[in-house]
Amino acid sequence: MGMNAASSSGGGGRRSRRKPVMAEINVTPMVDVMLVLLIIFMVSAPLLTVGVPLDLPQTQAKSLETNDQKPIQMSVDIKGKVFINDTEIALNELIPKLKAITDARGGLEERIYLRADKKADYGTVAKVMGQLSGAGFKKLALVTEADQGS
């Protein structure tokens, strides 16, 4: 029964103070989004540079160890056209151009990756391999896709 009126009215006269408006921009979510986009672009960029579109045969062979230098890639498409990296080249100009490229890089010991469409003419692929072998290139690797199984 004995309630003190003075103690109950002491808290009612206080005004509540509001926090002042914050004028700063929180950049943390923006930085998070930018880092995610950076990672996505770093992963997808190598996938966008395919070169000559080919339908490679599938094998169960193990992959080769590569060095840091970009390899020389030769391609034979379904129409029998021959490419060095992404540049189309005539079959009779193949060895002089390839020797000019390899002399600047590593000589005849430079590894050459040969990519051929699985429906390409076998005779054209054999001609390219024969010219490379006849010119003294010893490190020739045939590029295939990993076998997906049935």
TrEMBL record:
GO cellular component, one term: plasma membrane
Keyword NADP belongs to the record: no
Any single biological process term in GO: cell division
InterPro entries recorded: ExbD, Tol-Pal_TolR
Keywords for the protein's UniProt record, in alphabetical order: Cell cycle, Cell division, Cell inner membrane, Cell membrane, Membrane, Protein transport, Transmembrane, Transmembrane helix, Transport
UniProt-recorded Gene Ontology molecular function terms: transmembrane transporter activity
Transmembrane segments: 33-54
Membrane topology: Single-pass membrane protein; Single-pass type II membrane protein
Location relative to the cell: Cell membrane
Pfam families in the cross-refs: ExbD
Family: Belongs to the ExbD/TolR family.
Listed name of the protein: Protein TolR
Gene it is expressed from: tolR
